[in-house]
Amino acid sequence: MSATFERTVAALEEMFPQASQSKIRTTVAAVNGQLDAAVEILLDPNAKRKRKLKPDIRSYFGCPSRPPQDTKKLHIDSTIPSEFLHPNKQLQIATFESWNAAKEPQRPILLTPETLTPNVPCLTIQMDFLPADQANAALREMLETSGDWIRTKWVIFEREVESPHHTQLYGATETQLRQKEDLYTNTGTAATKMKLFTPTLHAIKMPIDDVVNRALSTRERHPLEAPGPWHANLALGNLYKTPEQSVGPHSDTMTELGPRPTIASYTLGAERIFRIKRLATDTTPAQTFNLKLPHNSLLIMFPPFQEFYRHEVPAQQPWQIKAHEIAREARVNLTFRMTRPNYMAHIPRCQCNKPAVLRTANRPNKKNVGEYFYICAGSVPASCTYFCWLKDRMHLLEQTANEPKKEAQASPTEHKGDAPSTQASHVVDKHA
């Protein structure tokens, strides 16, 4: 099969995780590799191929209008990552009964603060993180200033789609804001509407930095992970005004953070469900976990959460959420991240002349599992075929951040290699 065929299959596997690989491959072959036609068939096998799809993000991720057509389990042909093992006993942390791929998917497991880390080792949570008065003041400020927050737009299969919730991106310095503007000019992303950290955000950031660094000092660091102390210099605010507003399964963007990032997620306002989806391996099935995130709680996502899990904030009924005395049904979420200068300086541009995105290969070819690659983020009316392994650019990234090179447009050799037979992570600039 051609590299284009494999890229199409990989993209569809990401969009339709419950569809079997054989079904996806058969569909792609039947429509001669046309993405739009394949998407329509997988969304509704009985629909006419030429039916137009409404470009609403909820129809792709959040609230499907019909049940999944195929409930078979998704397998990754790899051994379970070491991070899934208990550090002392070296045993799988979650014990499962015998699993039959032909049966219904595993029922979601409701986690508590006490059972979170034993089941998902790369997550920790702290309740009542800040003094109550400080947390309530921060909530009021976020609600008052959220009037100009926007709905993020991005491209999926040559269609521009819009998130159902509102976001605002903050940067720690003026220099960082200029870098983002230079990178994302005319790309239609929220990055060009960044604001500086407010005093309130700085006051939240400082104790988060301390907690994250204390935790990192006790964890084994991966060679690709950011070395040294962690200091948040980017924050993404998300506002869910009603219980119906949601965000679908995704992993957070790693393009500017680099591989194996640590991200701290701070919740204000209404208590909502945070849904965690562990991807399947050849030894354990996929598993969904639900965790309630109350007001003034801090969730820290350590590596390799973005690589081997997906997360979402599902739509809920009003009676299913715990309203807050100030925010009522609204929930504000602030995710603090640390960008890495060398990754910022050496983001390649695809053939569309836009910044490529960094993703993880996580299925099904065993030799490529866990590797990273750059790919076109998507464009309208058509995306390009740009593809480049991260390992082929490490010589640039290993240069000092003080001497960055300005990247030219991708050379032809960078997008001629075979695309990975993997589930390409759908990483967008959003987070629960």
UniProtKB/TrEMBL annotation:
Keywords: Metal-binding, Zinc, Zinc-finger. Residues 4-47 form the CUE domain. Residues 402-432 are annotated as: Disordered. SUPFAM superfamilies: Clavaminate synthase-like, UBA-like. The keyword Iron does not apply. GO terms for biological process: DNA alkylation repair. PROSITE patterns: CUE, FE2OG_OXY, ZF_GRF. Residues 231-340 form the Fe2OG dioxygenase domain. Residues 403-418 have a biased composition (Basic and acidic residues). One of its GO terms (molecular function) is dioxygenase activity. Residues 350-393 form the GRF-type domain. Pfam families: 2OG-FeII_Oxy_2, Zn_ribbon_GRF. It comes from the Eukaryota. This is Fe2OG dioxygenase domain-containing protein. It comes from Aphanomyces euteiches.
